[in-house]
């Protein structure tokens, strides 16, 4: 028999009670169970809920009275957001929920981002929002594996249009909870970053080589959200080691591109995970292709990957700034770090004769890395390009030495 799955249904039950109970009824009608959480501040629901607003506020280290006394709806909802995140995380740890669906406008969506970010990757998360897919949501706040649906026509009261969205969400979250194959660690997991097989090719050689050594390998597309997912898992200590060879999201954050957050390149080192790092695509800043070149990046070489994504090339001083940022972040690591530096180029377009080659800029970056690399980081300059076989050979040499010495655990 199918084990009944329990979905946490979250929203402001003082203003959206009809919609939330409709959502719960559809979930129950499909054989699921519901746990209700009220994140209201001023009003109270007509029917009892499983997790009251008072419990939520206490979980956030405050009270409903304090939220009301603040006189500021933004402060009040941040109190409830912190509490809802803490409470949802505990409910998941206690095995009481299998997925979550949050309903809201801008207030509820703001809270939903905090709540969903508190749950591990692999736990089904659904947000029904009046601002789904809106640029109001900065990429560095969007949880790595959240799903969204636009709550069309649902700002106030039930109607046939919003029932269509709510019923889809009910089916989606319950179906996901039933079908999800949660990550199970049967082999030590290696986290690797890349920027696609055309630009960076090392994963083609390294993934099978590492799997032959008994490791599982997950490759993350470092275009903002991919880096967010990578850092989220690194912060949970999910990886036996990371091969972070595409940290251009550091460059993106510095120069206004597709950021994965200010803390990119920090979580693995913070929790004591060994890191092999290389500066793949460090010289590129990625931007939304259909919006045109940002004013700060005008007048420099660019490359359009497709209609969604384009990249601009950094100049020498900017590359030196990236080098300093990378080394600053790596200096904080509490586990071994190897920085592998291919001195003939760090993306396929930066080869001699390549469309985006800048020999002087590459030399400036390499010189800055040599000058500021902290003593705690093992620096390996290589006379090769990052897409050459020699790069992969060096990676495996360091990796194997770390396995032999016990720095990387070869067993769970």
Care to give the gist of this entry?
This protein has about 400 residues and is of the alpha/beta class.
What does this structure look like?
This protein has 412 residues and is an alpha/beta fold. It has 2 domains: 6-179, Rossmann fold, CATH 3.40.50.12020; 189-405, Rossmann fold (3-Layer(aba) Sandwich). Helices cover 39% and strands 17% of the residues. The protein has 13 helices and 14 strands. It has helices spanning 17-29, 53-59, 64-69, 73-93, 106-117, 160-179, 202-212, 225-235, 248-255, 267-271, 316-330, 359-372, 389-405, and strands at 6-11, 33-38, 99-104, 125-129, 147-150, 189-194, 216-221, 241-244, 275-277, 284-288, 302-304, 309-313, 337-342, 377-382. Strands 7-6-8-9-13-14 form a 6-stranded parallel beta sheet, with helices on both faces. A 5-stranded parallel beta sheet has the order 2-1-3-4-5, sandwiched between helices. The chain has a 3-stranded antiparallel beta sheet with strand order 10-12-11. Strand 6, helix 7 and strand 7 form a beta-alpha-beta unit. Helix 1 crosses helix 6 and helix 2 (53-59) crosses helix 4 (73-93). The longest helix is centred in the N-terminal third of the chain and has 21 residues, at 73-93. It is elongated and about 70 Å long. It starts with 5 loop residues before the first strand and ends in a 7-residue tail after the last helix. The mean pLDDT is 93.
């Amino acid at each position: 028999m199918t084990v009944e799955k329990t979905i946490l249904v979250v929203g402001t039950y003082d203003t959206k009670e009809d919609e939330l109970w409709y959502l719960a009824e559809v979930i129950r009608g499909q054989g699921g169970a519901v746990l209700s959480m009220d994140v209201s501040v001023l009003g109270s629901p007509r029917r009892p809920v499983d997790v009251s607003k008072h419990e939520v506020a206490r979980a956030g280290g405050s009270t409903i009275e304090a939220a009301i006394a603040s006189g500021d709806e933004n402060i009040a909802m941040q109190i409830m957001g912190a509490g809802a995140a803490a409470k949802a995380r505990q409910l998941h740890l206690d095995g009481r929920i299998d997925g979550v669906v949050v309903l809201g406008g801008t207030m509820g969506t703001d809270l939903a981002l905090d709540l969903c970010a508190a749950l591990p990757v692999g736990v089904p998360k659904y947000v029904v929002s009046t601002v789904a897919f809106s640029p109001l949501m900065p990429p560095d706040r969007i949880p790595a594996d959240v799903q969204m649906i636009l709550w069309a026509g649902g700002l106030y009261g039930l109607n046939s249009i919003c029932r269509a969205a709510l019923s889809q969400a009910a089916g989606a979250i319950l179906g996901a909870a039933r079908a999800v194959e949660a990550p199970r660690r049967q082999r030590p997991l290696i986290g690797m970053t890349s920027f696609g097989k055309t630009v960076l090719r090392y994963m083609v050689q390294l993934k099978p080589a590492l799997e032959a050594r008994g490791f599982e390998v997950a490759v993350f597309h470092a275009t903002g959200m991919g880096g967010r997912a990578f850092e989220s898992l690194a912060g949970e200590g999910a990886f036996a080691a990371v091969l972070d060879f595409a940290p251009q999201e550091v460059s993106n954050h510095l120069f206004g591109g597709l950021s994965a957050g200010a803390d990119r390149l920090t979580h693995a080192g913070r929790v004591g995970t060994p890191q092999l790092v290389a500066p793949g695509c460090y010289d590129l800043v990625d931007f939304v292709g259909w919006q045109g070149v940002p004013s700060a990046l005008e007048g420099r070489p660019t490359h359009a990957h497709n209609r969604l994504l384009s990249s601009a090339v950094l100049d020498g001083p900017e590359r030196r700034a990236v080098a300093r940022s990378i080394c600053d972040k790596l200096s904080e690591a509490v586990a071994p770090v190897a920085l592998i530096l291919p001195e003939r180029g760090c993306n396929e377009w930066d080869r001699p004769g390549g469309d985006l080659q800048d020999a002087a800029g590459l030399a400036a970056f390499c010189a800055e890395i040599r000058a500021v690399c902290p003593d705690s980081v093992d620096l390996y300059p290589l006379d090769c390009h990052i897409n050459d076989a020699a790069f992969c050979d060096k990676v495996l040499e360091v990796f194997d030495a770390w396995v032999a010495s016990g720095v990387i655990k070869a067993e769970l």
